[in-house]
Design a protein that fits this description.
Strand order of the largest sheet: 2-1-3-12-6-13
CATH superfamily of the largest domain: Periplasmic binding protein-like II
Strand content: 15-25%
Distance between the termini: 31 Å
CATH topology of the largest domain: D-Maltodextrin-Binding Protein, domain 2
CATH architecture of the largest domain: 3-Layer(aba) Sandwich
Number of helices: 13
Oligomer: single chain
Number of strands: 13
Radius of gyration: 21 Å
């Protein structure tokens, strides 16, 4: 575990920074009390480390107040920060961790200490998870669950429907001259390389040989004349569309539709019919040697109640993970996400892996070479 694996997650966090800063754009319905926590003694401190917004300071306020819990939040600058803090003196000081599925899968695959095995009897509301989120491969090992999904989503193309009927069938089709001056991409080497590798038909687009990576970059270069700019985040990408500087955002975010609507601009979203897109999810876990495990379990159970899960999904412009929460989610937000993907086990969130290996694995190249190739692409 070194800077190469950290680099892998930096772009994934940066592209979604805006998501966690949108709290308050959607009006939340007031939650009922629903504060009973079975067989646990609550009160005192709860140490949170994770994404800004997923500390649920608005949604869980009645739970914290009713149980005299003081939350101590630490918001992460990159997805790897919880592990770094854990390994450098933070063990025994962290309770709740909130992070993304690529990071969690990597930590569990590497058998690195960070997450405590969860006692699901202490999170009874987790029984309401969509079937496809009950035992996802990125949180589940050897019959043990290490995290509970909180929100999820995908990253389709968003576009001006007055200019386009939708994206083409394949990402490689964006090289056609008809897309000149139309495209905005987020500056994300992992996402964009994966999308174009998928379009080229590679069986495992996250596991590329050097020759396959070079072929992918060559295909991206054919599209580059049509790219107006590279956005730093999904919020910046939305702004480019709203200003009219571009009319098609590749690897965008359906919630950009509602951001634009607030400013009187109409956008639509769709994924290429042949290639599809990638999916993400964030989850809560409990750190090993958490000092306040009762508070951590109580908080997680509260956030898995249908009311709280619907409220956090609405607040963060995302999809909910509790099936009974869906009718309670803001209807405009609920309509943005393909819930059929989580209604059965083995769906795309369970099976899809976007991130490349942290290091070279035989003839499969690691993330450092993906980064180098992306920089060559941008400078070409």
């Amino acid at each position: 575990m070194d800077d190469r694996i950290r680099t892998l997650f930096d772009a994934r966090l940066n592209r979604r920074t805006f998501l966690h800063g949108t709290a308050g754009m959607v009006a939340l319905s007031v939650l009922g009390p629903r504060l009973v926590v079975r067989g646990q003694t609550l009160g005192g401190q709860l140490n949170y480390i994770g994404y800004d917004g997923e500390d649920a300071r608005n949604v869980a306020k009645p739970f914290f107040e009713a149980n005299s819990i003081q939350v101590n939040p630490t918001f992460i600058a990159d997805a790897f920060e919880p592990l770094t803090r854990f390994q450098t003196g933070g063990r025994g000081q962290m309770d709740i961790i909130s992070d993304n599925k690529d990071f969690m899968r990597t930590v569990l695959d590497a058998d690195v200490e960070l997450f405590t095995p969860l006692d699901l009897s202490r999170i009874p509301n987790a029984a309401g998870l969509f079937a496809g989120l009950k035992t996802p491969a990125w949180l589940y090992r050897d019959g043990v669950t290490y995290g509970i999904p909180l929100i999820w989503g995908d990253e389709p193309c968003t576009y001006d429907p007055g200019v386009w009927d939708g994206p083409p069938a394949k990402y490689t089709d964006f090289a056609d001259p008809s897309w000149a001056g139309a495209l905005v991409l987020v500056d994300d080497p992992v996402a964009n390389t994966w999308l174009w590798a998928t379009s080229l038909g590679f069986e495992q687009p996250n596991r590329l040989t050097q020759a396959q990576l070079d072929q992918t970059i060559d295909e991206l270069l054919k599209t580059k004349p049509n790219i107006v700019t590279f956005a730093a985040t999904l919020g910046d990408q939305a702004d480019v569309l709203i200003r009219g500087d571009a009319s098609m955002a590749v690897g965008g975010w359906a919630y950009q539709i509602l951001i634009a609507k607030e400013k009187g601009v109409t956008l639509a979203a769709a994924s290429p019919a042949t290639d599809g897109t990638f999916f993400w999810s964030d989850a809560y876990s409990i750190a090993l040697d958490a000092p306040n495990p009762d508070n951590a379990y109580g908080f997680m159970d509260f956030m898995m109640s249908p009311e709280a899960n619907a409220a956090i999904a609405s607040e963060l412009g995302s999809a909910c993970t509790i099936e009974a929460a869906l009718p309670l989610v803001d209807p405009l937000i609920a309509s943005l996400y393909p819930y059929d993907e989580v209604r059965a086990p083995g769906g795309v969130l369970d099976t899809q892996v976007v991130s490349p290996p942290a290091e070279d694995d035989g003839d499969i190249v690691g993330v450092a070479k993906w980064q180098e190739a992306w920089q060559r692409f941008k400078l070409s």
